[in-house]
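User: Can you write out an input/output pair for a complex, sequences first and structure second?

Assistant: Here is one pair. Inputs:
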Amino acid sequence: MRIPPFKEINPPTKDGFWINKKTNEKFGGQYISPLLVPNLKRVEKGFYKALKDKKFLKELNEELLSFIGVNTPIHFSPELTKLAGGEKKIGKIYLKRTDLHTNHSHKPVSAYSSCKLAKYLGFKKILTETGAFQNGRAVASACAALGLDLDIYVGAKDAKKLAINKDISALHGANIIEVHDSTKSLLPAMAAALRAFQSEPDSMYVVGSVAGPHPYPLMVRTFGSVIGRITKKQFKNLVGKDPSTIFSVCGGGSNMLCISYPYIKTKNTKIYAVESAGKGLKTGKHGATIGGGGKMGILLGMQSKVLLDGENIAESFTEASGLDFSSIGTEVAYLQSIGRIKFLTATDLEAKKTFMMMARKVGLICAIEACYVIHAAIKEIRKIGKPKQNHLIHLCGAGEPNVAQMMEHMKKNK
Amino acid sequence: MSKLNILFKEARKNKKKIFIGFVTSGDPNYNSSKEIIKEMTKSCQIIEAGISFNTSTSDSPIIMEANDRAINSGMNMNKTFKLIKEVKRETNTNTCFVIMTYLNPVKIFGIKKFINQCNFVGIDGVIIVDSNLNSPEEKILINSLSKNKIGYIKIISPTNDDEFIKQSIKNCRDSWLYITSYYGLTGSKNVNINNVKMMIKRVRKYSKEIPVAVGFGVKTPSQVKQVSKYADGVICGSTIVNKVAEGHKKRLKGKKLATFVSSYVKKLSKGIRK
C-alpha cells in the first residue's frame, strides 16, 4: 500500500498556537529562552522546506514502508469482541498493530522521519529524551541507519526499569545520559534534552511526543500521521467505512494523535484517549493530566494542560514509564478543550490485569502502555452497547521490555 | 525614570560600571537566603533574585540544584517577595532588586498580582527567561511593567540575528539589555570576551543609549574586570550560587553562610573597573 499524502486539516497559527475560540485558551507557542530561538527557527524552516520537497518525501515514504514497515495490519479481534459482550451487543473490535513496526512501537515513524529531516538539514548529531525507551530505541535505530550521532536523555528512575530497550539503544551506538533532576522521569529528561539543545546548536533535538516548543508538536504529528493515513485507507478497505470509535493511550499523546489526526474532521468517528490513573485518581498518585484536573501551564517551551504543584510542575505517578508525564501535547489539549477527544483512565493494576489477559486469551504480549487503552476501551464499548459498530484500538507497542516487571506481577498473584 | 535607569545613567556619566549578583532566593532555605542577600547588598549595586521553577529549561546543573534546595525548603513566589521586603527593611539599602524567573510561576501566581507585588515590595526590574518576544504574554508584561516604572530586561545571545536584537531592544523597558557571552547554559563555560565585544558592537548599531550588562561564565575578579571594560554592567550568577552550595555542604547556616558567600561576592565585585 502506498502512503496517502499529508493534508493539513488543523493548522496552528504562525506562532504555533491552537486557539479555542470559545474560551480563548491558547495551546502551543514557543516559550523558550532567547538562546534557543535560532535553533528552533532552523528546524522550523527546514521542516516546511522538507514538506514541500517531493524528492525528500518520496524517499522518506519508501524508507518508512521498507525499513520501518509502516504497513502494519489492522485485524478483527474475536477475543476482545467476545470479552466486551459479543458482536450482537457491541459490534466488532479491531486492532491496529503498530507494535509490529521495526523497533516494536508507533514511535519509529516520527523518530525516523525527524532524523531523516536532521540529515537533510545537515545536522550530524541528534539529541532526544525517552521515558519508556520506546522513543530512545526508535531514534537510536534511525541514527544508526542514517549515520548520525545520538545522545539520549533518560530519567534515572526509568533507566533502571527498562533495561532491554536501554541496552538495545546502546547496542545501536547511542550515548545514554541519565538525568537525576527532580522526579528522575520523562519530564526532567525532556528538560535536560532541551537544555542540551541550547548548548549544542549544531545538533538537532528530536522530540518523542507531540509536545515541546513550536514546531515540534506540529512536526511530530505531521510525520507520525503516516500511521493514521494508512489506517484510514486500510480500515475502509477492510470494513467498508470509517471506524465508529478509535481508542489510544495518552501520555504526551503521540500515538493517539498520530493515528487519530486524519479523523479529526470525520464526524462519525469518536476519538478516545486513555490516561494512566496510576494507583487511582483519588490517591493523587497518577499520570492523568486531563482526568486528574490539569490546568493551563507553561513548561518545556509550550503552553498546555499541566498537573501543577503550586507554581511548579507536579510529579506524575504511574508504573508505565511511557505515560509518566505531567502534561499532554498541545494539539491534544486543544482538541480535548473543544470536545473533540474524550478522555478516559485506567489504573496500573487494571493495565497489569489486561496485560495478563492479552497474554493468556489473545496470545499477544503488549507494551504495558497499550494495556491501559485496551482495558478502558472494552469498558467504554460495553457502555456504548450498540450493535453494528466498528471499534478500533491502537495497539501501539510490544511488551518485551515489560516482561521482568510482569513476571514479578504473575508470581505475586499466583 | 526607573531606579535602574538612574543607576545606569549616573554610572555612565561618572564612567563607572555596575556589579550585578545573582542568587536563587530561598537557597538553601528562607532564613539563610535572607542573610546571604542582606550581606550581598553591601557589594552588589543590583541583586538578581531567582525564583525557582522545577522544570526550567535554561539553567545549569548548579542552578538546578539550587532550585531544588529552594523548592524543597518550601520557597515560592510569595515568600520571595516577603524575603526581599524584609531585606530592604532590615538593611535600608540602596541596592536595586531584580527578579529572574520563568513564565509558569508568574502566570500561576497571576500576572497582575505579580506586578502589584513587585510594586508593593519595590522590585526594580524583571527578567522572565522564557517569555518569547512574540508570546501573547509579552505585550501584557511590557505594558503593565512600564506603567509601574518597573524595568523589563531582555536577554540576547551571540546566535541571535539582528532582527531579534532590534526587537529585544524595543521590548526592553527602563532597564538594561542582558547579553550572554556565549550560547549554552548559565555558568557552563568561561566568558568569551570576543563575543562580548562583538555583541556590544551589534547592539550599538541600533541603540547608543541602552545599557548593556554581560553574564554567563563570569567567574573571577579578573573576568569581571575584563568584561567591565566593555559593558555597562557585569553579572555573576552560577559562581555565586556555587559558593552557596559549597557553604551549605560545609553545613554553614544563617549569618555564617552569608559571610562565607558575601566575602566571595565582595572579591568578585572588586574586579569592576572604577
